[in-house]
Structure formats: C-alpha cells, structure tokens
Write a structure and sequence with these properties.
4 helices; globular; alpha+beta; 2 domains; 37% strand; 248 residues; 11-stranded antiparallel β-sheet; single chain; Thiol Ester Dehydrase, Chain A; 11 strands
Length: 248
C-alpha cells in the first residue's frame, strides 16, 4: 500500500502568537492535533467512527523538537502519519515545514485506545488496525519513539493552581492535552518564556483531568536550560502528567 499523504497548510494567526509575534507551543500542538484529526477522518478511525466500539484515542506520550517557531502571517505545512502499532500502542509522527520546504519542528507521539465507559485501556480491534496499518512508512523514515520515563522531580516548587472548566474539556470529556502543555509552560519564569527559546519538550500523560478538578503545577530547575514539570490533582495528589523542557 502506498504511504498515506497528509499535508495540511496553515497561516499563523494573531490569536496563536506571543508578544514576539511567533507561534506559541500550545498553538503548535493544537495545529498538530487538527492535522491528525483530518487524517483519522479519512481513515475512518476518528472519534465518530469509534463510537460504535465505545473507544477513543488517548495521547500518552509526546516529544516536540523545535528548530524555530513561525511568525505571524507565515504559512506552514504539517505532515502527519501513523508510524506503527502493537497490541496496545500506536505511534504517530508530525513534521512541520515552512514555505521553503525547510523542516522547522517535529513531534513523535504514542497513543492508546480507552474504553469510554470503563475509562480503561483497550487493545486495538483487528478491523480498526487493518484500516491504517498498511500505511506505515519504513522504520528509517520514522522519528524515534517518545520517552516512556523522565527524571524524577525530587525538589518540586508549587506555582500556579488551575480549576478545570467546561471549555478546558475535549470531545471525550477530559482535560484537553493542549491545556496540559500550556499550564506546564506557564509555571516557568518570565525570563525563560520571554528571552529564551524552547528546543525540546517531553511529555508523559498519566491520568485524566476532569471537570472541576483543581490542578497544581509543580516545577524544578535542573540546570540553566532544563526544567522538570508536573501537574498534580489537589484532592488526591494524583500526578496527571510530567514533562521536561530544554531551552537555550
């Protein structure tokens, strides 16, 4: 089977930029999600196609690497494609290009299927796997898988606290992963966000965030350029996600 092309084009808009007029990381994550959604619709494995199975795709790991962030008005293209699967996990890569065809960012992701009634992990039904497994590219064309563990945070500093609202939820009724990313980054010092550039972000999504949950952000600086991040539910101290960012 021939590789499945999926190249979506976007123009960077004013509500997607920061004070430097460049695309924010949360906005980049949202554009990647939109690109993947268009492809799963074509493959008939989208949230609507999975309703009859009482299943939904859930992101559990992600690594973002950035060479540069595009500016307001700049046109970019995002190429997304499934890269592999096993009994439980599926893998998807993203590559972001500028108008000259130069790659400016990439991401590798790991997903699983969740039963929407029990909220438990589920194996991939054979008939669903057959809809996309023939499109996997050669391994040498795939990005390395996202990390499955990160350094342990042993000296956390509490920063912001958030309460999950209605508009923070996604279509499977849990906290949208874009908010995980945004809330982690908001805990960083202003000097880091304003004066430095992020080169890499590793993310592990460990548990769902639900409506009205109170979530605390925790942060620990490892060195001049590296931070650990953690989102913790206030009530039961459950760690919902961990992350690491590298700046320069």
């Amino acid at each position: 089977m021939n590789p499945l092309p999926q190249l979506e084009s976007y123009t960077i808009r004013t509500f997607e930029i920061d004070c430097h007029k460049q695309l924010t990381i949360p906005a980049l994550v949202r554009l990647m999600q939109e690109t993947a959604m268009q492809q799963v619709l074509d493959l008939k494995i989208s949230v609507w196609d999975l309703e009859e199975y009482k299943l939904a795709w859930v992101l559990i790991r992600k690594r973002i690497e950035v060479q540069r962030l595009p500016l307001l008005g700049e046109k970019i293209s995002i190429h997304s494609y499934p890269t592999g699967a096993d009994r439980v996990f599926t893998y998807r890569d993203f590559r972001v290009y500028d108008e000259t065809g130069q790659q400016i960012a990439s991401a590798c992701t790991t997903w699983l299927l969740m039963n929407t009634e029990t909220r438990q992990m589920s194996r991939i039904p054979a008939e669903l796997l057959a809809r996309f497994s023939g499109y996997f590219p050669p391994k040498e064309n795939c990005l390395p898988h996202a990390l499955d563990q990160l350094p342990v945070m042993d000296r956390p500093l509490q920063d912001h606290a958030y309460r999950v609202g209605w508009y923070d939820l996604d279509f499977i009724n849990h906290l949208n992963n874009v908010n995980f990313v945004k809330w982690m980054l908001e805990a960083l010092p202003d000097e880091t966000l304003g004066l430095q550039k992020v080169y890499r972000m590793d993310l592990l999504f460990l548990a769902e965030g639900n409506l009205h949950d109170e979530i605390e952000t925790e942060i620990q600086q490892l060195d001049e350029f590296t931070y650990l991040h953690r989102l913790v539910r206030y009530g039961d101290k459950k760690v919902l996600a961990t992350g690491r960012t590298i700046w320069g």
